[in-house]
Amino acid sequence: MDIAAFRRSLDQPAPPPGLSPAAQALWWDARGDWDRAHDCAQEQDDAAGAAVHAYLHRKEGDLGNAAYWYRRAGRRVATATLAEEWDALAGEMVRR
Predict the structure, then answer these.
(1) Among the four 16, 28, 66, 95, which has the fewest Cβ within 10 Å?
(2) pTM for this predicted structure
(3) HSE on the CB side for 87, CA within 13 Å?
(4) pLDDT digit string, tens, across residues 58-83
(5) What whole-number distance in Å separates Cα of residue 52 and Cα of residue 38?
(6) Cβ–Cβ < 8 Å for 69, 42
(7) Cα Rg for the chain, rounded, in angstroms?
(8) In the predicted model, is pLDDT for residue 20 greater than 80?
(9) 24 Cα distance to chain centroid
C-alpha cells in the first residue's frame, strides 16, 4: 500500500486489512479516535510502535511521556508540526 491509498482508506469504516498495529494507530488517529489509536500503538512492541506511541502522547500534550516513547523508538523528540509528523510516520508505516 502507498500513502495515497492509505489516505483514501480513511473514508472506510475500518482500516485496510494487513496494516501493522502502528499503521492502524495512525489510521484511527486520522479518524479522530485517539483512544483506539493508542491501543493499537501499544500492540506493536518495537521501534515503529514506540514512534507512533510518542506522536500520540505529543498530540495529547503529555510531553514527558512522549519524550520517553521517542527514546524507546531511538528518535529525537519531534519538532515538526503534528500534521508533518503524522505524514512522515504514515509514509514509513504503510511501506512496512
Answers:
(1) 95
(2) 0.95
(3) 6
(4) 999 999 999 999 999 999 999 999 99
(5) 9
(6) no
(7) 12
(8) yes
(9) 7
78: which 3 cell numbers? 519531534
Q: Give the Cβ contact number of residue 61 at 10 Å.
A: 8
Instruction: With CA atoms as reference, report the closest residue to 48 among 80, 11, 77, 90.
Output: 90
Residue with cell 506522536: 55
What are 23's three cell numbers?
A: 499503521
Let me know: does 85 contact 55? Beta carbons within 8 Å.
yes
Rounded Cα distance, 29 and 67, in Å: 19
Let me know if 79 is exposed, middle or buried by CB neighbors in 10 A (0-12, 13-18, 19+): exposed
Cα dihedral sign for 82, 86, 92, 93? positive
CA distance 94 to 24: 9
